[in-house]
């Protein structure tokens, strides 16, 4: 141990440009280090101790990065909150994570204010003036720039939606390591992809930092000495411009990005110098084989794919692996074991689909406050997120289906149960099923099928009324795009909904049911 980790690198070279905000503002490592140190001292003065929780509702950029760096050197759990959520959804995470401080941005003033009750007034902060919140400067003013004493590695605690609707925090035991040593261990992940430390390297942050993988890959690149270049809202041509301008070497993408990039006119695609690209990594949703082939033809052998879970463990497909096994999401990381099992928990032979189980050496986790859910997804010391797939003879994993229900739209996991729970309370709804249907741009879009209550007339007016009832209760990204009506929901005698029966007509003629 001893050469990597942001805090070490920033002390050795304070002039290195460590981050570039979406508006182009550059931040030197020494300045970010000083801000993170002042914040650590300020929050400790407020009473935060190792093991406590800190939540941030902030856009992509240096403000969120400073929260992350403070938490990871003070032994706190940092939870970046999804900024599409509504006030009650944010309040639930603040309460569930036992946040001892909450930092927000005026951009999210309306929903942050609705959620604020969950945190004591003296523990609510905003990065600029916002009524009901203390200015963050008030907390850090007069605090020293020097490294705090008793530094110990913290962790991010991301919330992953549960099939029961309420998201769960994935909490790992703290290691007690020196923060830089802990950060250096994290770099193992990017090293798997062949990513090398040092400068000049730049990592483009294309997606919201509240996603586990986005903060993990960005944070790890920073700990390797790479510059983080942040996008605020993703745009295909803007991404190409930033890649050329900052000589980007790596990024983390989803197949929806590829679809948008390939849709650009040929002259726009050819206008930018992309020769710096080395490790363009994608995941989060299955990538259609022709799309991936087009990307490899355009960018060359720099497109890497993986499959993983917030809970830990995963697979990796190098460009060479994928060309030899088109459609694969890769084989197991050296520290991961894969197991494909049938419904009784018995392993299945190569080529046979089953539930995908993983385990990662030395990694344990729990769903915070939910031992039953933590245990429910286990098979001995393996866990599953409920995806279905198979291994070929060479040990390469192929996904066949997300556990029947989960919808993946634009790389985001959306859980139907949560949406169904909200629609069911409508007085004119007798029954509802929500599932994903094919969408050329997003991968899947959300469809709701409703059985109207007796006396309620099905039709566009009722559909509009049902959707309007979700306002303020459910993030818009979770709203069904369309609502269809059915006389009677297909259910088994035991009451179990036959969702596959409802989904099947929409997926006819598709070679994969994802």
From TrEMBL:
InterPro entries: AMP-bd_C, AMP-bd_C_sf, AMP-binding_CS, AMP-dep_synth/lig_dom, ANL_N_sf. Keywords: Ligase. Residues 136-176 are annotated as: Disordered. Residues 418-496 form the AMP-binding enzyme C-terminal domain. The keyword Ligase applies. Residues 7-359 form the AMP-dependent synthetase/ligase domain. Signal peptide: none annotated. It comes from the Bacteria. Belongs to the ATP-dependent AMP-binding enzyme family. This is Acyl-CoA synthetase. It comes from Nonomuraea ferruginea.
């Amino acid at each position: 141990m001893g050469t990597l980790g942001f805090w070490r690198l920033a002390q050795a070279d304070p002039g290195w440009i460590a981050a570039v905000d979406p508006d182009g503002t550059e931040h030197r490592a020494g300045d970010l280090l000083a801000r993170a140190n002042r914040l650590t001292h300020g929050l400790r003065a407020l009473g935060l101790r190792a093991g406590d929780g800190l939540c941030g509702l902030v856009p992509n950029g240096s403000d969120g990065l400073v929260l992350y760096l403070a938490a990871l050197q003070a032994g706190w759990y940092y939870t970046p909150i999804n900024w599409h959520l509504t006030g009650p959804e944010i309040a639930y995470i603040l309460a569930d994570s036992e946040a001892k401080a909450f930092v927000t941005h005026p951009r999210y003033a309306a929903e942050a204010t609705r959620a604020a009750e969950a945190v004591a007034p003296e523990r609510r902060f905003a990065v600029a003036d916002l009524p009901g919140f203390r200015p963050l400067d008030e907390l850090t003013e007069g605090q020293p720039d020097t490294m705090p004493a008793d530094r110990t590695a913290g962790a991010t605690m991301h919330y992953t939606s549960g099939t029961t609707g309420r998201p769960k925090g994935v909490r790992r035991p703290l290691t007690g390591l020196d923060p830089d040593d802990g950060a250096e261990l994290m770099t193992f992940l990017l090293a798997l992809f062949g990513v090398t430390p040092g400068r000049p390297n730049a990592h483009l942050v294309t997606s919201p930092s509240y996603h586990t993988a986005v903060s993990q890959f960005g944070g790890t690149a920073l700990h390797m000495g790479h510059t983080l270049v942040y996008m605020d809202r993703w745009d295909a041509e803007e991404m190409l411009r930033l890649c050329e301008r900052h000589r980007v070497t790596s990024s983390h993408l989803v197949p929806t990005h590829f679809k948008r990039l390939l849709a650009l006119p040929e002259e726009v695609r050819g206008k930018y110098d992309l020769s710096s690209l080395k490790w363009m990594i994608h995941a989060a949703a299955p990538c259609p084989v022709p799309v991936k082939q087009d990307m490899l033809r355009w960018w060359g052998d720099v497109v890497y794919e993986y499959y993983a879970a917030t809970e830990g463990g995963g697979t990796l497909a190098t460009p060479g692996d994928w060309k030899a096994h088109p459609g694969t999401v890769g084989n197991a990381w050296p520290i991961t074991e894969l197991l494909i099992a049938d419904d009784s928990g018995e392993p299945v032979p190569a080529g046979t689909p089953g539930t995908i189980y993983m385990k990662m050496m030395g990694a344990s986790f729990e769903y915070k406050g939910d031992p039953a859910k933590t245990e429910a997804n286990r098979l001995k010391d393996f866990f599953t997120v409920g995806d279905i797939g198979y291994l070929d003879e060479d040990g390469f994993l192929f996904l066949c289906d997300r556990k029947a229900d989960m919808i993946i739209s634009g790389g985001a996991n959306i859980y139907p149960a949560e949406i169904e729970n909200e629609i069911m309370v409508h007085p004119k709804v007798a029954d509802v099923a929500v599932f994903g249907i094919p969408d050329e741009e997003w991968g899947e879009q959300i469809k709701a099928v409703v059985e109207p209550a007796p006396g309620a007339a099905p039709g566009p007016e009722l559909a509009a009324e049902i959707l309007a009832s979700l306002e303020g209760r459910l993030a818009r990204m979770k709203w069904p795009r369309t609502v269809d009506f059915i006389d009677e929901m297909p259910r088994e005698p035991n009451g179990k909904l036959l969702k596959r029966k409802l989904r099947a007509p929409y997926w006819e003629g598709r070679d994969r049911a994802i």
